[in-house]
Amino acid sequence: MGKLVICDHPLIQHKLTFIRDVRTNTKDFRELVDEVASLMAYEITREVPLESVKVQTPVAEMDGKVLAGRMLGLIPILRAGLGMLDGMLKLIPAAKVGHVGLFRDPETLQPVEYYTKLPTDVTERELIVIDPMLATGGSAIAAIDVLKKRGCTQIKMMNLIAAPEGVKAVQEAHPDVDIYVAALDEKLDDHGYIIPGLGDAGDRLYGTK
Ligand SMILES: O=P(O)(O)OC[C@H]1O[C@H](OP(=O)(O)OP(=O)(O)O)[C@H](O)[C@@H]1O
Ligand SMILES: O=c1cc[nH]c(=O)[nH]1
Ligand SMILES: [Mg+2]
């Protein structure tokens, strides 16, 4: 079973409250999502291995540390996942980006796939799938399915807010995938929206409602 990590750093929790607030306008919403994504990038990379390299400071030579192991890949689920991408790239600029386009059919709540473009070396990378919302889990499961069909094996999931139903569904479908969230909310409503959540992440990011 993949682990569920709740990133409870005070800065993340503080900013998330303003993201949730219905009075937060599109510009502020976008900026706050970007900031929280950077903070979560810090948390999700906590266990990335390091290796020693010699570095000459102005005063002496020493053993410094640099990132080792697999290179990272970021996989935003279009469209709302794009809102978290730049914030992550600020901290992980060497990551390559693959896009998976999915939307959730409002009637059936099933994910509909419309676009995939992945880096050529995607199977050699440790991947982080990013999307603000994990509701029923259908979109996350479908995105991870796309990656596994291409041969990817090292995958983590990162969301701002998850519902217990979505966490359970992803853990059952993909038990090898750890999930990092800023908050685990109460439940889903009859339309598959997270309660209390933040509303429709894509619409709030891009002002489409
Ligand atoms: O866990 P699920 O029940 O699948 O729901 C979550 C999905 O719904 C939202 O996307 P949406 O379908 O609104 O597309 P958008 O990003 O284009 O707005 C959200 O960004 C997730 O991708
Ligand atoms: O609460 C929800 C559920 C799915 N997608 C969203 O954007 N918000
Ligand atoms: Mg949406």
TrEMBL record:
GO molecular function (one): GTP binding
Keywords: Allosteric enzyme, Glycosyltransferase, GTP-binding, Magnesium, Nucleotide-binding, Transferase
Enzyme class: transferase
Cofactor: Mg(2+)
Cofactor binding, note field: Binds 1 Mg(2+) ion per subunit. The magnesium is bound as Mg-PRPP.
Single GO cellular component term: cytoplasm
Pathway(s) where this gene product acts: Pyrimidine metabolism; UMP biosynthesis via salvage pathway; UMP from uracil: step 1/1
Domain of life: Bacteria
Regulation: Allosterically activated by GTP.
EC number: 2.4.2.9
Binding residues annotated for 5-phospho-alpha-D-ribose 1-diphosphate, in chain numbering: 79, 104, 131-139, 200
One protein family per Pfam: UPRTase
Binding, uracil: 194, 199-201
InterPro entries in UniProt: PRTase-like, PRTase_dom, Upp_B, UPRT, UPRTase/APRTase
GO process terms (BP): UMP salvage; uracil salvage
Catalytic activity: UMP + diphosphate = 5-phospho-alpha-D-ribose 1-diphosphate + uracil
Keyword hit for Glycosyltransferase: yes
Domain Phosphoribosyltransferase: 7-208
PANTHER family: ADENINE PHOSPHORIBOSYLTRANSFERASE (PTHR32315), URACIL PHOSPHORIBOSYLTRANSFERASE, CHLOROPLASTIC (PTHR32315:SF4)
Protein family membership: Belongs to the UPRTase family.
Protein's job: Catalyzes the conversion of uracil and 5-phospho-alpha-D-ribose 1-diphosphate (PRPP) to UMP and diphosphate.
Name the record gives this protein: Uracil phosphoribosyltransferase
Gene name for this UniProt entry: upp
